[in-house]
Write a structure and sequence with these properties.
Blueprint (H helix, E strand, L loop, with lengths): L1 E3 L5 E11 L6 E8 L1 H22 L6 E3 L5 E4 L1 H7 L5 H4 L5 H4 L2 E8 L2 E5 L5
Antiparallel strand pairs: 1-2, 2-3, 4-5, 6-7
Length: 123
């Protein structure tokens, strides 16, 4: 939804309306939240994500995005190519990395602030 400033500038808003019962009759409380800054920041984040994706997809190194439970969330083009040997990207995404690379062992890999390592085996 958009609103128009008295200067004529149109800007995105969120409108929240609530009915408030009152002795003299119900009242309507309306809040307008200017979303201009959030819209700008969201677009900047999307642009940054596109740039990062372009960089990662044009490298020959396999990059895998894991969550804190070491579950595969995403991978670059080289990673998608490597997963074809395991049944394809659709079958690998959402699975624990340990299901594919063997036992996880403590050591050098950093996940959040916790150092962790695992022995990587051939796919």
């Amino acid at each position: 939804m958009n609103a128009r400033h008295r200067t004529g500038q149109v800007f995105p808003v969120e409108l929240i309306a609530s009915r408030i019962p009152a002795p003299q009759g119900d009242l309507i409380c309306v809040l307008l939240h200017d979303l201009s800054q959030m819209t700008t920041v969201t677009q900047e984040l999307r642009d940054t994500q596109r740039q990062l994706r372009a960089i990662l997809d044009n490298t020959t190194q396999l990059h895998v995005l894991l969550d804190l439970d070491l579950v595969v969330q995403a991978f670059n083009r080289a990673g998608a190519d490597a997963t074809r040997r395991l049944g394809g990207p659709e079958l690998v995404a959402g699975k624990r990395l340990g299901d594919y690379v063997g036992d996880l062992q403590h050591g050098d890999l950093r996940v959040g602030s916790q150092p962790r390592t695992w022995k990587v085996e051939q796919f």
